Structure formats: C-alpha cells, structure tokens
Amino acid sequence: MNKASRNKASRDKPTGILSYFTRHHTIANLLMVIMVIAGVFAFPNMRAQFFPDTIVDDITVTTSWSGAGAEDVDRAIVQIMEPTLLAVEGVASSTARSSEGSARINLEFEPGWDMSRAADDVQVAVDGITGQLPEDANDPRIRRGAWRDRVTDVVITGPVGVDQLGRFADEFVVHLFAEGVTRTTIRGVASPSTIVEVPSLSLIQHDITMAAIADAIAEEAVVDPAGDVSNAARVRTGVAKRGADEIGNIVLRSNPDGSKLRISDVGTVLVQGIDRNRAYFVGENPAISVRVDRSEQGDAIDIQRTVEDVAADLTATLPEGVSIDLIRTRAEAITGRLNIL
C-alpha cells in the first residue's frame, strides 16, 4: 500500500467514543459489567415514592375579623399588611384574598430561600403592624407551607367510645414514632369543650353576672408558676380544674350565713366531646383516621411495611371488635410500577 492509500485509509477510519468501543470489544464488555454491578449495588438504596419531592416556598398569613365585609377587610387589614409583608427579604410575590370576616395573604419566596428564616422575618413584620389593625380583629396567624406525600391512611374503628378510640390512636402514633415514622395526623376526633349554662333567672336570683362566673372559672382552671424553691423543686399556684364536677364546685362567693354559692347552684356544667359532623364512622361504629405521610428521605414501601407491623402488634392488645385497617395505600401501586420497570 502506497503512502497515498495509507493517508486515505487513515482519513476514512471512524473516530469518537463509539467507534473506540467498536474497535475494542473487551473494553465495551468490561464497561457493561461495571454498569451492571453498580446497578445491583445501587438498587437497594433507591427510595420508593409515588411523587417526587417538592419544595414549598410559601407562607400564608390569615386574619379574621368577625362581622366585617370584604371591602372593610381589604381596606383595614390587607392594604395595611400586604405592603409591609412584601418588604420582607426574600419575598418574590404575594396573593391577597379578602372575604367576609377574614383576610388571607399568601407569600411566595425566592427558590432555595431559607424558609425557617422567612417564617421568623414574617412574624417580626406581623408583630410590628398588629397594633394598626382593628381592635376587634383577631391576631394574624402565620402558617408555613408544607409538602406531604401520603403513604397510607389507617382507620381505627370498633364498638367503643370515641374517646377510647382516641387513646388507641395516640398509642398507635407513639409506636409509629418509636419505629421512625414521624409524620402522622390524627383526624376524626374533636377536642372536648366544657359549657356552663346559666339561666337569666338564676343570675337575677343570686345577684351575679356572667362576667363574675367567667372570672371565677379562669382563676381555677389554670395553674401559674410561682418560681423555684431549689434546683430540684418548682412551685405552682392553684389547681387546674377541668372536669365538670370540679368546675361545678368552684365557689363564686361566701354568703353572710357561712354558706357558699357554687357554679352548680346557679347553672349546669356540660362537657361536649365529639361532634358527629367532624367524626368518622364505619357502619354504626365510630372511627378515627390516622394519615401517614412520607418525609423527604423516607421510602414509601418501607414505611407502609412498618405501619402494617405496628398495626398488627397493636391489634392484638385491643378489645374485641376493634380493628386497625390500612386504606388508600400506595405501596402496591409503587411496587407494580417497579415490576413493570
């Protein structure tokens, strides 16, 4: 082969990374083996999740003003708060909504902004303008946006009282927390409220006002810290009275004859617990739902497996007829997609 032919063959010879592997089969096979081995080692460390992680960079400020119209709310609350909130460092945009009796301002921050710092800055800004709001308006509430990815819902139901189901739900959540599942939300139970009903006739007969009754309850229902006696002892004043009988026995005043006028003498104390409009039912039995969410580093399949194990262990200790069931689980769907992949 002459020199011209060699130069032409050299120019026609393919170049590049792909042509290199076509000429060196051993290197190509070795690279394939390395990739397979790396995939085998990486697969157990892959997190299974239904949706990708989402960063939420927003904070919502809400204020309620009972009885005010939307225009009054916008003029007296939104137009005062929004300019100050827009001046908070890191705020990219805001959206305000005025409705009857309430105002809502949503702040979006720059991508990657420190949201813990943002929440503190918003709180400082709100504290600085609270005095400019209407006197009968409630203090603004600040809520930081949160991203949640549901893993499953757990339903606890049975022929027992809702208060007992609530205790079972609390115990279930504590067990989940001990196993590393920390994002749970209990739904379907309302906090108990104590109501004192006093007829107007009783107020007249006993010459007492509702304000006096409210003050007496406030003094007895809360305990206050009174300081430290030593490094190992702490003193509190008062006794927290929360039950119906305890509130009924609160003394309103001492009569000249030595007798005492108590709340139970002038009114009726009622403890109302569960509101059916907010409670869940499975058939005729009350139920409580526990939502389990995945954290940013959590694996949905592993979390559901943990929830199933905790539910099985707790079910063995529950009264007859009480069950713990998992619904709206996503692990099966995730597993199916992985199998297809």
Report on this structure.
With 341 residues, the protein is α+β, with helices and mostly antiparallel strands. The radius of gyration is 33 Å and the shape is flat. The longest helix is centred in the N-terminal third of the chain and has 18 residues, at 25-42. Strand 8 (224-230) and strand 9 (233-237) form a beta hairpin. The relative contact order is 0.14. It contains 12 helices and 15 strands.
Topology:
Elements: H1 3-12, H2 17-23, H3 25-42, E1 58-64, H4 70-86, E2 91-99, E3 102-109, H5 115-129, E4 141-144, E5 149-157, H6 162-178, E6 184-187, E7 193-197, H7 200-206, H8 210-221, E8 224-230, E9 233-237, H9 244-248, E10 251-254, E11 260-262, H10 263-266, E12 268-272, E13 280-282, E14 285-294, H11 300-315, E15 323-327, H12 331-340
Antiparallel strand pairs: 1-3, 1-4, 2-3, 5-14, 5-15, 6-14, 7-12, 8-9, 10-11, 13-14
Helix pairs in contact: 4-5
Give the end-to-end Cα distance, rounded to a whole number of Å: 53 Å
The structural class is: alpha+beta
What fraction, in percent, of the residue positions are helical?
Answer: 40-55%
Q: What's the number of helices?
A: 12
